[in-house]
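Pipeline run #58 for the internal structure catalog. This entry was flagged by the ingest filter as a single-chain record with no existing model, so it goes straight to prediction. Upstream metadata was stripped on purpose; only the residue string is passed forward. Reviewer on rotation: M.T. Logging verbosity set to normal.
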Amino acid sequence: MPAVSGNPTSLREHVSLREFTTWKVGGPAEWFAEPADQRELLELIAWVSSAGMPLHCLGAGSNLLIADSGLPGLSLCLRRLQGSRLDGNDGWVEAEAGEPVPTLARKAARAGLSGLEWAVGIPGTVGGAAVMNAGAQGGCTAEWLQAVKVVDPERPDTPFWLETGELEFAYRHSRLQGERLIVLAARFRLEAGHDPGAVTARTSANLHSRTSTQPYQQPSCGSVFRNPEPQKAGQLIEGLGLKGLRIGGAEVSTLHANFIVNTGEARAADIDALIQDVQRRVAAEHGVELHPEVKRLGFP
């Protein structure tokens, strides 16, 4: 095994990934690390590149389905890379990749910065939001993101910035999904000069709306399928009477049909099979192909 400079204790073998995903499923990582800062992250990326092993970034573990067999190579959990700087005068915000999106939304509200009120219920990190162009309640990341700091694992010594126009944003999509670039940080430009109390109230109202209509008390990944606009995935699924449909410990939520929840003992294979079953039923009845938002790792 190649040596890792700095603090090698961050590198561990055969770590179960179920506790690092919001679905609470997934097998072991061959190698696992939670870097404490960007310096340590870049050292680990250089290590895995020199070793010629696969590299997987987990973020907060939302929108991820990891196979029961686990993952080869190095799995990096970036949730410790937190922190942000907000300028209440001109609206500029810079956040680390592991900063939780709800945390950033609340910080922005307290600073009187408007633009992220919709994001308070997103169960992910800033880096994941940039990669997925995460959105909710009429808002999306691409509307406010100005640039992302990324690194190519083949060139870990030279991080660089990509502007919004270079990211090829579309509905729940960016070019980052098809490339090996890893997000280190992101810059946003929000609307300054708003009353902090009013922005906070709107943010809290959005959170209440989401938590009262979605199964936040059970392990899930958030919305499973992209909406086949102008139709809504949840409505198509609910219309077929599929709420409560189960395979093993995986269940189509009885609260919101575009959520699949882990009822306690689900395996990744159960969730994967239920996703495919729902897709088949919707396609057979409506002629609509549902595309998952979920990224599958470790599956054939």
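catalog note: The helical segments are 38-51, 101-110, 126-132, 196-213, 233-239, 268-286.
catalog note: The chain has three domains: 8-76, 84-213, 233-297.
status: ready for reviewer M.T.
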